[in-house]
Amino acid sequence: MTPRERFIAALERRPLTGRVPHFELVFFLTMEAFGKVHPGHRSYHQWDQMEEKERQLHRQEMADLHIATAERFEHSAIFVHPNPYNVEETERLIDLIRERSGDRFFLMLHGDATFSVPSGTRMQEFSYRLADEPEKVKAEAAAMVEEALQRGARLRKRGGLDGFALCADYCFNTGPFLGPSLFSEFVTPYLARLTKAYRDMGFFVIKHTDGNIMPILDQLVQTHPHALHSLDPQGGVDIAEVKRRCGKEVCLIGNVNCGLLDTGTDEDVIRSVRYALRHGMPGGGYIFSTSNCIYTGMRLSRYQLMLDVWRKEGNQV
Question: How many structural domains comprise the chain?
Fold first, then answer.
């Protein structure tokens, strides 16, 4: 099986033997690993002034960097980061990655369109609006979903893309930004609509959110994503408990503690990796990952240590 096929099998919770699939939502350490700036960190203020030949060179380098990351670190999937971020450039980058890598890797894009934790400057305003004009807020939520689905339909028609990672963050370490009752009113119905429509188009759906999801776990599962990411231990999310509660309904991705990769000891990292593997792998439906991403400032050696443990102990029988 190709890495893409194994990733899909895990999303569908089909039994697998051998090493459990792995990917990271983002690998930002491309400068340390390859001597190249990550696509998401590049500024393209002069893009409109470039000749098409120069733009094509940029696209090709971004595509090659995505593929090189997947190959070196054994990712089964690539989360595509177009830059500039518009529909046309997104389509071109997907085409290039698929052309250069064939069907080896599962390709996904950010595709969320639901309300997430507001910025600190907007939190108070958003809270007032929920009370003062709830129907207007719901209309906005519905409109955001419909706009995303129009883009999804265009991408489906073009081909090459396997699915979406829905990257609206809902939770702090202490819990969701809306209590379960308000969440069920202003987020869950729209997440369910988005997920169902994507699935009906033939896409796979991975729902990402950091933080403590436990108060809304059942609601997230009821929207029927193929997988939940990132199962954040810094938010008190225990993969053993999540596996017990919903492991037969949804694939689980993550739970290796990013904070420990950054500031813990080697022994802390090893324990976190082993815990995630021990409780995620049984019965299938698990994809190995950190609890967020490989972010700027993290030591590459720590990620390599995490992968060393996975290679030795992340094997399903």
Answer: 1
